[in-house]
Amino acid sequence: MTFLPRAAAQRFGLTLQAVDYGGEAQQDTAGATGTATVEYEAVEAGQWWRVERIVARMPSAPTKLVGVYVTSGGTISDIYLRDSTPLPSGYDAIAEYPNPITVRSGEQLVVQATGGNPGDVLTVHAQWAVVVPASGTG
User: Which of 33, 41, 43, 81 is paired with 107 by a 20 to 30 Å CA distance?
Assistant: First the structure.
């Protein structure tokens, strides 16, 4: 008997199928501490997002730090951190993810900039593939 190799997704029972592509721009204004937070809506039941690109902009004199989080309920903590980068004044932070950030059903994508000036506006645009488990469980 001959055994043919099978993909890991088939062997372990989970295949994701893209059903749509989404993207959305959001903004938040930094408060007294110079922190601005953009929270995307929770991913619908039965779907996942595979975040492929994030662009962040926050004009300000100081260098800021932008963090990307995947949370349940919008909680910001290091345990939920998926990416971070410094954002020098006058530049955009652009992240392309060849291995996308996965946001599962009920979870949220949150982008936070710290170190800005009060009143600075954080603008974030994220792009993602909407996927559903095609086999197995998710």
Answer: 33
